[in-house]
Amino acid sequence: MAGYDDRDGKIWMDGKLIEWRDAQVHILTHAMHYASSVFEGERCYSGKIFESTAHSERLKFSAQCLDFEIPYSVEEINAAKMATLEANGLTDAYVRPVAWRGAGEDMGVAAERNPVRLAIAVWHWGNYYGDAKTKGAKLDIAKWRRPDPATIPHEAKAAGLYMICTMSKHAAEAKGCSDAMMFDYRGYIAEATGANIFFVKDGEVHTPLADCFLNGITRQTVIKMLKGKGITVHERRIEAAELESFEQCWLTGTAAEVTPVGQIGDYNFEVGALTLDVSESYEKLVRA
Fold first, then answer.
1. What is the secondary structure of 73-94 as a DSSP string?
2. 3-state class of 38 per DSSP?
3. Which residues are part of the catalytic machinery?
4. Which distant-in-sequence residues (6+ apart) come within 8 Å of 173 by Cβ?
5. Has residue 5 been placed in a domain?
6. At 14, which CATH number?
7. Quick one: 117 and 240 in the same domain?
8. Is the entire prediction scored with pTM above 0.85?
9. What residues pair up with 118 in beta bridges, in sequence order?
10. Distant-in-sequence, close-in-space partners of 171: CB < 8 Å, separation ≥ 6
11. Do 231 and 199 form a contact (C-beta atoms < 8 A)?
12. To pair with 160 at 20 to 30 A between CA atoms, which of 151, 195, 198, 270?
């Protein structure tokens, strides 16, 4: 398959649709040097973007966390996403809005005089973890930890926060794993590199408290769905030693959707009935 910079199609950029290959930025773009960039990952199912407004709202919120304002309303962003899907003839696709500080008068840490730009790309993307959707993903345990929230805007979906995620996923793939589980700065279980994590014990669900990492939209959706089924959900700090006692595990995220986990380090998990039920229920919900 062609690289992401060399494809046919259209990308929405700063208010208009342009040819895919023409969607470029200058080498002195502020975001490239100082990570002043935020983004969203969304999926469109049968012509409808799941939780489109929630994603657009979070995109604008993330930008505000990084001290810049996206010059488009939530409604305008929603419309632009749909226009991009239509221009590419896609009804089932991954949707990637990204906003950043561009090149301008400033080229240093401060960039108040530089324009804020927005682009939206869409493409077909299958299962993020491949056949792990049925067999269960194998996770490494990352050496990098999610930082103290006093050091980063952890509630933002900001590009710079993914640097350690990229390194952790590369290390995991080198070991034959699909991804890596990360601890937080205190040593509690946090998440995977691009997905939230859930565990099952005695019919109840346990998931790390999102107090220093992104509280994913899919995570919130699955928690609500579980509670609707009458299943007890514990959002709490989870210690590493508890991995041995959990029976099932899964990941959630827009790209990951609901993906079972079969192994984390030396710990094994069953791809059990509750995990499969949650996965199937989520598939039905997003296509409803």
1. -HHHHHHHHHHHHHHTT-SSEE
2. strand
3. 157
4. none
5. no
6. 3.30.470.10
7. no
8. yes
9. 99
10. 140, 142, 143, 180
11. no
12. 198
Q: Do residues 192 and 267 share a domain?
A: yes
Q: 86, 127 in Cβ contact below 8 A? A: no
Residue at 233 is within a domain: yes
How many domains in the chain?
A: 2
Using pLDDT thresholds of 50, 70 and 90, give the confidence band for residue 257: very high
CATH number of 215's domain: 3.20.10.10
How far apart are alpha carbons 275 and 267 in whole angstroms?
17
Q: Per residue in 44-79, pLDDT tens?
A: 999 999 999 999 999 999 999 999 999 999 999 999
Running DSSP on this structure, what letter comes out for residue 47? Answer: T
Burial 214-224 (b: 16+ CB within 10 A, else e): bebbbbebbbe
Tokens representing 209 are 């408290």
Name the E strands within the chain.
10-13, 16-19, 37-39, 42-45, 48-49, 93-101, 116-123, 137-146, 179-184, 189-192, 196-201, 204-208, 233-236, 248-253, 257-264, 267-268
Residue reference for tokens 């509280």: 215
What DSSP line would sit under 194-208, residue for residue? SSEEEEEETTEEEEE
- Supply 91's token pair: 């009804």
Q: Does residue 2 lie in a domain region?
A: no
